[in-house]
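Q: What structure does this chain adopt?
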Amino acid sequence: MYPECETMVMLELAKESCLEQLRHEWNATREHGCPGEWDRLICLPPTALGKSVNVTCPDIPIFTKRGVVTHTCTRDGWDDPQPSYIHVCGYIFLNEEGPDRQIDYMTLKTAYTVGYSSSLTSLALAMLILCLFRKLRCTRNYIHMHLFASFMLRAISVFIKDRVLFTGEAIDNCAPAPATCKVVMVFFQYCIMANFSWLLVEGLYLHTLLLVSFFSERKYFYSYIIIGWGTPAVFVVVWTVCRVVYEDTGCWDNKGNLVLWWIIKGPILLSILINFLFFIGIIRILVKKLCSSDVGGSSSSHYKRLAKSTLLLIPLFGVHYIVFAFFPDEASELATRVRLYFELALGSFQGFVVAILYCFLNGEVQGELRRKWRRWHVQRFLERGGRGRHHHQQQRHQQQHSSFMMSNGVSSGGLTTHMSLLHKSSPGGYRASSSRDESTII
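A:
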């Protein structure tokens, strides 16, 4: 429960107890003094005129001291407490943040928004490439695609959560939250756990590939899907049920009861630890293989290959999370700020780095893209060449046909001339002309 909500509940219970006590025990009537009343923090008993009452600071989260406050009954009623509760009881303002803290939060939010946006864009393009090219479809790339999908869901869930929680309006964490807000938080927790689960699957697959000589990748792939998507669903469902039953307060965006919070935090920490052990084991295997006599090359080249392999595995396994994985929640403000920037700001670019390293810079992907590019250029060249040859053949055929007709006197003018000659030289033509002459003479 939020501290302010706990304070409100405690004050409400104290008020009910005070009013009940005034009704039954103190007979709160005003004769020549001040009646008993609830002053919003403590219960004042009926007191004679001019008398004072000393009360201790209430035991609630907003007070840090147990001082004494004096109330005096005057003709006008109870006077103001002397000294004030703020000075005597050490009053603290809950959830009150200064301008520096707000600037830090806005800078952090801007940083991880840019990171998740770049990750979402690059991962979507990487998913499209791996889905379109059939030659890139294998168990290893299938696992990469599921990891890409988990990173994308994580980015989307962060954007949705920020949209719901940081709308610019003050959220009353003590009032009943709408069901939509709780559903968003359940979706957010599932996406976070699924992302860590698929990071664990990447480590498990690579570790198994190096240790086991022969194994059925298809058979293990279904187990990986259960681990990546099914296991987080089980823990999130258990967490949701426990929140509904034991701590259905606010929008479920706070840690609240630490026992319930460990339902989410425990599996994530375990996956980080296991993946870190996988990372150490794989590095040891690589070192042994590089140091063996069968591998040629100088020691400097071996170190370069080892460093390259290590840097490639860090974002894929999420090794950087081990830095603050077991960091206590109750730490100093500076340490908490460093942790937030490291995990949120830098961690938001993890999907972008994974997409670059395991898709865009991958040799198989680049080779397939170049092959498709060359094939497209060749096909386009052939289409242009075919259309050009066809057009050239048509022009050539027309030229041959024209020259043939010209050689036989066939043309628009020649055809008329030839027909007139035939007409004149034919007997019918001659007779026709004689008849015309005769008719002329007549």
